[in-house]
Design a protein that fits this description.
transmembrane; mainly alpha; about 75% helix; elongated; disordered N terminus; 7 helices; three-stranded antiparallel β-sheet
């Protein structure tokens, strides 16, 4: 005769006067989700800092510098051709400058970290540190080529926004307004994207980037207009 009863989470089976306890693995969905959340919270978002910094700064610089150049030229010239040529020259020159500057900067950082690793190798081996741990540290080193490429591409993307927005508008005042409006929208997007990827406050980042872009365009426009009137 077989009799079954439930005791807590484990079924108890009575068979031929013998007690048999059958254990069942119960997967706790809440615990599983908690582990996933802990894993996500434990992710080191500073690992994204290298390429994220280069990409966000490159896009913002490309957008602000090119839009400011075009606004400055627009302050003294109504010709759309002059504005487009100025914007394109700013895109090429800025992309090259960003690539070289980022490469030199990150390479200097790489030299410092490599020198530090060499100084620590002897002490690391004495403390019983494995080669895998040393290799993992080398894998975290910054890449000058990656940073330079990210900066160049991001700068070109950012600079293309005001350049394309002014390409098909012949009316002078409308063209300036469109460049300012489109650049402002792009600044909000770039600021929000950078904050979201780095898990930083989005509203604060967007406001900071937007106000900075407005100041750059306004100062360039105002000073260029003043110098033009004074000459």
């Amino acid at each position: 005769m077989v009799m079954a009863a439930i005791a807590g989470d484990q079924p108890v089976v009575l068979k031929d006067s013998k007690l048999v306890v059958c254990s069942i693995d119960v997967h706790d969905d809440d615990e599983h989700q908690k582990n996933q959340a802990d894993g996500e919270e434990g992710f080191d978002y500073s690992q994204r800092a290298q390429w994220l910094r280069a990409a966000v700064l490159g896009a913002n610089d490309g957008l602000v510098s090119t839009a400011s150049l075009m606004m400055g030229v627009g302050a003294v010239k109504t010709d759309v051709k002059a504005m487009i040529i100025t914007g394109f020259a700013g895109l090429v020159a800025g992309a090259c400058s960003m690539a070289i500057g980022e490469y030199v900067s990150v390479y200097s950082q790489l030299d410092i970290e490599l020198a530090q690793i060499k100084r620590d190798q002897k002490r690391a081996r004495e403390s019983g540190k494995s080669e895998d741990e040393e290799n993992s540290e080398k894998e975290k080193l910054p890449s000058p080529f990656q940073a330079a490429a990210a900066s160049t591409l991001a700068f070109a993307v950012g600079a293309a926004v005001p350049l394309l927005s002014a390409s098909f508008i012949k009316e002078y005042r409308v063209r300036l307004g469109v460049v300012a409006a489109v650049s402002s929208l792009a600044l909000l997007v770039f600021g929000g994207l950078g904050a979201a990827l780095g898990r930083a406050p989005v509203a604060r980042a967007c406001l900071r980037v937007l106000v900075g872009g407005w100041l750059a365009m306004a100062i360039t426009y105002g000073l260029t207009k003043s110098i033009s009137n004074a000459i």
